[in-house]
Amino acid sequence: MMTVSGRPEKRAEKVRLYSRLAFPLTFEQHFALHNLR
Q1: How far apart are CA 36 and CA 32, in angstroms?
Q2: What is the pLDDT of residues 1-37, one digit of tens each?
Q3: What residue numbers bound the domain in which 5 lies?
């Protein structure tokens, strides 16, 4: 489930999953994951 496909469309869904599963993450890490692509 936590695989980096590299699609901007899937990235949005992935961000949601990370927001739910790993919400305690800091904003810096959140932005980092958002820029992972």
Answers
A1: 6
A2: 455 565 566 777 877 776 666 555 677 777 787 787 5
A3: 1-37
